[in-house]
Write a structure and sequence with these properties.
heterodimer, A: about 190 residues, mainly beta, eight-stranded antiparallel beta barrel, 2 helices, about 55% strand, elongated, B: about 190 residues, mainly alpha, two-stranded antiparallel sheet
Chain lengths: ~190, ~190
């Protein structure tokens, strides 16, 4: 009898808890590196130069019923910039570009999410980079979601946006073909 | 005479001294100039390539020089006791700073394990790499170490000229491999 009561309570508790999960909270899986912040910029107009930020952390909320509740917050360790060339990375960390001594962290905090259907949407938010905060809009689309093989639940998105270097006071000239940088974001979150 | 004596410097020391003096001053100027070049300058890649190549050769020459110093006698330093003490300190500081500047310079391009090409003849592999902020810290040491070295060289030059023109001794001429009847020579 006692056992049955506790079973009943447990089942009831599950029933109560489920609706509260409408807003799901995710932590970006940077621990096992299933998230990437990559950028590419034209080199002299002849090819793309690719790089990434190796160190960042963040979390997001996802609401399947009301996408207005979707939000994300990410902090980036700017000094972790990596273009696979020590001297270039050193130059990128210098005041000519990111000035990491003075501005070690970049952040993105979303302000709105506009669903476009089919798992796509427009995510707007404030990007703080090199001491400048500007609103940017990121085209987002969900890649997939579901149970992982290890007992967790994951959901992943990709996103793209374009930044103008001069908006963030990066005025070192790289030539007319290299005034913008394209960002590619691939983010996998683990539901908490 | 190739080796040093108690009175004067041998030719090996003399040649290394002036070769490194000229090269280091030129490298200092080159370093300052090249870091200010804009991306579209013809010299943007060439100048650092030359700087790194010469720098590696200087580092090897410095190793030889330190070995040569170790197996040679040092000619007596002239002047007052305090002058001799300062001169000795300045000489030693030069070795310390040269080593510091050259090694820190080498640690910048090799910070992620890439080697340094010496004029395309051969490549010096990375040894210490992937330390956090390695390129930035090495760059800081390289820059300020170079300024300290040039400051010290200016002091050293001033002292040599003082010995030559005011004291009238053989401090400068013996490093030029020339004979001079010293005014204050006691030996």
């Amino acid at each position: 009898m006692k056992l049955r009561l506790s079973m009943l309570l447990f089942i009831l508790a599950l029933g109560v808890a489920t609706p509260a999960l409408a807003v799901e909270n995710y932590v970006i899986d940077t621990a096992k590196n299933h998230a990437f912040i990559q950028f590419k910029i034209k080199h002299l107009g002849f090819s793309w130069l690719l790089g990434r930020f190796n160190t960042f952390e963040g979390s997001y909320s996802f609401d399947a019923e009301n996408s207005a509740n979707n939000s994300i917050k990410v902090n980036i360790d700017v000094a972790s910039i990596d273009t696979n060339h020590a001297e270039r990375d050193k130059h990128l960390r210098s005041p000519d570009f990111f000035e990491v001594e003075k501005f070690p962290t970049a952040s993105f905090v979303s302000t709105s999410y506009e669903a476009k259907g089919d798992g796509k949407g427009l995510l707007k938010g404030n990007l703080t980079l090199r001491g400048v905060t500007k609103e940017v809009a990121i085209d987002v689309s969900q890649i997939g979601a579901g149970k992982d093989p290890w007992g967790g639940y994951r959901r992943g998105f990709e996103g793209t946006t374009t930044l103008h270097l001069s908006d963030y006071n990066m005025v070192k000239s790289l030539g007319p073909t290299a005034e913008n940088v394209e960002l590619y974001l691939s983010i996998e979150g683990i539901r908490q | 005479m190739l080796k040093n004596t108690r009175q004067t410097y041998g030719w090996v020391t003399i040649i290394i001294h002036w070769l490194m003096a000229l090269a280091i001053i030129a490298m200092f100027a080159l370093g300052l100039w090249m870091t200010g070049l804009n991306y579209y300058d013809t010299w943007y890649h060439k100048a650092p390539d030359i700087h790194k190549s010469v720098g590696m050769l200087l580092l090897f020459l410095l190793f030889f020089r330190l070995a040569w110093v170790a197996v040679n006698v040092k000619p007596e330093i002239m002047g007052q006791v305090w002058e001799r003490m300062i001169a000795l300190m300045v000489h030693r500081m030069h070795y310390v700073l040269m080593l510091l500047v050259m090694v820190s310079g080498y640690l910048i391009p090799t910070a992620k394990g890439e080697g340094v090409s010496v004029f395309g003849w051969f490549s010096v592999p990375a040894t210490i790499a992937n330390i956090a902020k390695q390129a930035d810290i090495s760059g800081f040491i390289h820059y300020w170490g170079a300024w300290a070295m040039i400051g010290l060289a200016a002091m050293h030059t001033g002292a040599a000229l003082k010995h030559h023109f005011i004291d009238g001794d053989t401090t400068l001429t013996r490093m030029l491999g020339m004979k001079r009847q010293s005014k204050g020579e006691h030996t």
